[in-house]
Amino acid sequence: MKVKICGIMDAGTALKAVEFGADALGFVFADSRRKVSPELVREINAQLPPEIHKVGVFVNESKHKVEDIADYCGLTHIQLHGEESPSFCKGFSLPVIKGFNIGCHSDLELVNKYACEGFLLDSPKGVYRGGTGKAFDWSILQDADLDGKRIILAGGLNSENVTAAIRIANPYMVDVSSGVETDGKKDLKKIKDFILAAKGEEPLDENVYDA
Question: Is the pTM of this model over 0.85?
Fold first, then answer.
């Protein structure tokens, strides 16, 4: 199972997440307590292996600004998590992941109107678009006709429930932010435990979490 750790805010956490086995890292450029500057993300990405997906998260931003930030920071993917239309999501220079807030089965109907590289299904929005720490009913994905789309499951995931979430929803990738935080900050032990659980491995000794 592929894993994305979202809401990265410093190089140390990014490098440890990669060491622990993360496949993708997410950087939030929209309004959020995890919002980061392009300058910081450029610095972090310069230290990461080329095979790691570096995803920029944007909400209702202009295409020109998204492209400028993506190029400057060295992003590999663009995640759009607002009311961006199907036509808006086309024509970017990088693969696009479209985010959706899912509350019920009918919310999934919108997904098939888009043609994107990936589709991030998140919990219903709170103050911000993501990072609420709340899960939606994963079982609604079991009989959903999503036309073979690459689903990235997000919303309320943590090391204790991610195995069940994967079994029920069968996503292409799982995405976590608040579920690997303690007091609003990324927790290396929780990141490691989440990645191991998602990939079906056993936790290691405590000292592997030391920065």
Answer: yes
